[in-house]
Amino acid sequence: MGRKPLEIDKIVMSLIMTEDTLLKKKLGKKILDIAYKKGIYPSSIHELYLARGKGEFSGFTVPAMNLRSMTYDLARAIFRTAKKNNSGAFIFEIAKSEMGYTAQPPVEYTSVVLAAAIKENYSGPVFIQADHCQVNAKKFQENPDKELEALQKMIADSIAEGFYNIDIDSSTLVDLSKKDIKKQQKDNYEVCAKLTQFIRRIEPKGITVSVGGEIGEVGHQNSNVEDLGAFMEGYQERLRKGLTGISKISVQTGTSHGGVVKADGSMAEVKLDFGTLNILSGIAQKEYGIGGAVQHGASTLPEEMFHKFPENNTLEVHLATGFQNMMFDSKYFPVDLKNRIYDWLKVNAVSEKKEGETEEQFFYKARKKALGPFKKEIMSLAQDLRDKIAAEIEAKFDFLFKQLSAINNRALVDKYVTLKRVITRKRQDASAVVHDGEGAD
Question: Which of 88, 105, 279, 432 has the least C-beta neighbours within 10 A?
Fold first, then answer.
């Protein structure tokens, strides 16, 4: 018994440190097998969200947390927080862009999260989500099929590795220059429907992947009732009859990813429209039967705002940059390592520095890009240092779970989420764009 925790630590560190994709997959398979034996299952939150849409429960907001660095340590902290608070509804997520700049491919992210559950003796469903499966608007205009093929490959790779929750972000295609709102949303809902059909065709037997749509690009114009209606009407018309659609909808209410940092390094005040969030979530539930509205870009908001999310019927809230900031700014994070990271940024991320930007603003915005190149070095820090940094962030996790009322919901999750073992982990074929008329096999 005493050797098991050390064994899982060793497997995780080997998986994180190797550049060999085949070895990563082999070690990931080993972790998955141990997880299944211990009652730990990568799962879809779809059924829970549809039950929320039907009004069968309410009162809490699901935290969806992007772990960009120290993923094993922070995932362990999240599982400890969940056990302490009797929580079952919480999501580990990583965006398409983050997979690249943090050097965490789907097989690594899933495996490290599951290993954290094993280490902390957690059991039950584990929700892993591909956040912002985003369409590049410029590339889409140049060659839509090629852009969608690339996105489908990423989605297929993610699903094959246990990401049974996929957030499609084609809101980048919304064209506000058009007067008609449905025409503004046309490319958005059409691409979202195509990608939903692709997901239904490749999802594992017995799993209904939770799919999210998005109607407003974060950091841009706030979403409204007309946007939601135009998107949902077009999406339902475009989606092949009989196919299961989205379970939630992301909206823009005034936030921006990572927050806005002022010249002195402090954060600018955010004006978040909770009223719009409440209204859109209610309409999404009552008129379309989905779980509700999702808020992005929230981790750097003032602490006194978080209790307002469950009070305003928010289904899910995405949290990322704040945890990264806490790691970099921790008194336990080695100063020499931080200085070397900043020196690296001056050379390798100089193109991101805007005219008139202070050094504080540049480092704040760009330092996430160093997480991949310095991943192994950060994970090679002494365990006691990593434990101390993780303990600081764990206190934040606990605060957020409580503020979002994401506590004492484990029984509810167990009621709606069926544990399903997926036998094969082979990558699905993503070679063809899903065209009209194609759907689930």
Answer: 432
